């Protein structure tokens, strides 16, 4: 099974990762990749560089960032391969532990749908 771990952060703090955090994160990424638990991961650029597109019942709109109503934003993600939600949560907890007490960070973990299987059922 695959899971998406979305990293939520307060965007406007100006906080940047320390050298210690970057080194520990590099080790964690290597560890997770070596055991096949990490499919992909990345940080996201600031919301002022982003765009939101919406279809509201056929009415299309665009909002350029930054997004004033957002207190917390998705600052990054990891796509994890795990046998269960519990395992995906354990992997995400390891990610949170690496941050120590330097950061106020939250992750949301959700299982990804298997679109190949779901679409083949509909055919």
From TrEMBL:
It comes from the Bacteria. InterPro entries: Dimeric_a/b-barrel, YCII. SUPFAM superfamilies: Dimeric alpha+beta barrel. Residues 1-94 form the YCII-related domain. Pfam families: YCII. Signal peptide: none annotated. PANTHER family: BLL0086 PROTEIN, BLL7171 PROTEIN-RELATED. Belongs to the YciI family. This is YciI family protein.
